[in-house]
Amino acid sequence: MHVSMMILRYAALLCGSLLSVALLVITFRKFFYSSKSNNLLKLNESFSFGEIQYKNERNNIFQKTSFFSDKNYYKAQIIQQLDYWSYRVISLGFIFLTIGIFSGAVWANEAWGS
Prior knowledge:
mainly alpha
């Protein structure tokens, strides 16, 4: 039981981490690659979340499309679903980790004694 719980933990935490990385890539994709100038964002600039959010709001003012377009709505739906599922899968991985540690302690007590 200990080994199976630890394998499930690795699988759940790996999947949750991949979902979280996908969330970050979709959310901050346009800040790392600018389609207008085809240049990568300079790495020496600060990457604080507040500054990125400010840049996002400032760029939305100058865009010709509406903020409430279908593209932004579906992107927000995908981001919300990725956030929900990554949270749930990582929580499941944490539960498997807890069960695996406790079952490993019981197994070690049975195998080697106290």
